[in-house]
Design brief:
276 residues; alpha/beta; Rossmann fold; six-stranded mixed beta sheet; six-stranded parallel beta sheet; 12 strands; binds 2'-monophosphoadenosine-5'-diphosphate
């Protein structure tokens, strides 16, 4: 059998941790295959996707800036990718068809359930900060899990409003940033999807006082692993979930589809990816 090939397309793609992640699994499961970096400028994305089949790829991941633009170059897309409006994983069929999906929602919810088993979808309202692509995946996952109220707080109110309109105005309630206190009041889950707290970005400075002490605080930022938000939540003894797990779990269905083995997320994998 020929070695199986997969990879990640982005521009730039040097800093991606996905190669370290997939290579760890290839080695762990003794699979003959490779996962390579594919630097693809925006104007070449269509051509690059078109060449995957003849180059022998089983599929690829997509990262910035290709996740949204790829939608128009694929043979088919899943319901998840359509609703989230972004593709992070492509599977190739034997006859060269390209199927795009989005595993970020799966990664987010699987990690949340693993790291905070006390959290239940019916525990109360969830607060999501941010209204970009990551927020769309998180809102999709929370709605799919059965959360009945998602308070969507974003600096630019218009973006939160259009996300709610598109994805489910009945359960997603846009809130202006100034209403943070009311949004946090009585919430069972707080998720940061903004870039605040990321290395090189300002900290996310919000007053957590209105948040119940039982509420789970999940930051999807993973560089650094302990963001100022998570440090503040830990200091007041809220259960916390860091962002690395979402990255690890989103890769699970992709690896399974390409290489035929459902891989496990383990402490050894976490340590390996952190050190990469
Ligand atoms: P992604 O697709 O990764 O989610 P994005 O679309 O660039 O990234 O979204 C970044 C999010 O961080 C947005 O919600 C953005 O708020 P705006 O919609 O108002 O731009 C949020 N964000 C970035 N810098 C911010 C800041 N200084 N204060 C508050 N929110 C900020």
């Amino acid at each position: 059998m020929k070695p199986i090939k997969a990879g990640i397309m982005g521009w730039p793609v040097d800093h991606s941790r996905s190669p370290a992640l997939h290579e760890f699994w290839l080695k762990t499961y003794g699979i003959e295959g490779s996962y390579v970096r594919l630097p693809v400028p925006p104007e070449s994305l269509g051509a690059a996707i078109g060449e995957l089949h003849e180059k022998g790829f089983s599929g690829v991941n997509l990262t910035v800036p290709h996740k949204e633009t790829a939608l128009s170059f694929l043979t088919g897309i899943t319901n998840e990718a359509r609703q989230i409006g972004a593709v992070n994983t492509i599977f190739l069929t034997a006859d060269g068809k390209t199927l795009g999906t989005n595993t970020d929602a799966y990664g987010f919810i699987t990690n949340l359930r693993a790291e905070a088993p006390m959290w239940k979808p019916d525990a109360g309202p969830a607060v999501v900060l941010g209204a970009g692509g990551a927020a769309r995946a998180v809102c999709f996952a929370l709605q799919d899990a059965g959360v009945s109220e998602i308070r969507l707080v974003n600096r630019t109110a218009r973006r939160a409003e259009s996300l709610a309109l598109e994805m489910g105005p009945r359960r997603i309630k846009p809130q202006p940033w100034e209403n943070m206190k009311e949004a946090l009041d009585g919430a069972a889950l707080l998720v940061n999807t903004t870039t605040l707290g990321m290395k090189g970005q300002p900290a996310l400075e919000i007053d957590l006082a209105p948040l119940p002490p039982t509420a789970v605080v999940n930051d999807i930022v993973y560089v650094p692993l302990e963001t100022p938000l998570l440090a503040a939540a830990r200091a007041r003894k809220n259960p916390t979930v860091d962002g690395l797990g979402m990255l690890l779990y989103q890769a699970q269905p992709a690896f399974a589809g390409w290489f035929g083995v459902r891989p496990e997320v383990t402490p050894a994998l976490r340590a390996h990816v952190l050190a990469a």
